[in-house]
Amino acid sequence: MQFLRPAWALTAAAVCFLLLLLLHSQILREGQLVAGTCEIVTLDRDSSQPRRTIARQTARCACKKGQIAGTTRARPACVDVRIITSRQWCEMTPCLEDEGCNLLVNQSGWTCTQPGGRVKTTTVRKQA
Length: 128
Known about the structure:
The protein has two helices and seven strands; from the N terminus they run H-E-E-E-E-H-E-E-E. By secondary structure, it is of the alpha+beta class. One of its GO terms (biological process) is G protein-coupled receptor signaling pathway. Belongs to the TAFA family.
């Protein structure tokens, strides 16, 4: 009888420890991204001006060595760092398949032109 009480206490402590370990690993797994992937954190749209919508999005990326956050097929993606440093934005294929990509004159971004003539302009803002 004297051995049962400490044995149950030890078993209960071990079960609590395992549950705590399982919860901790689950919380860490949910907060981390797989290497080479991105997710959209915030997306704000402003349609207050006629015929014009301003969209701002913030993405969180876990890029591999030699990569940096960029845009591929209108989605956040990890791209080669050389594309960003050289400001040759169209090399990361930022537009959808049926759209044409053109650099802005000052290389501060790019435009995606749809077959119907609609133009989407994207400008890059450097994060501090």
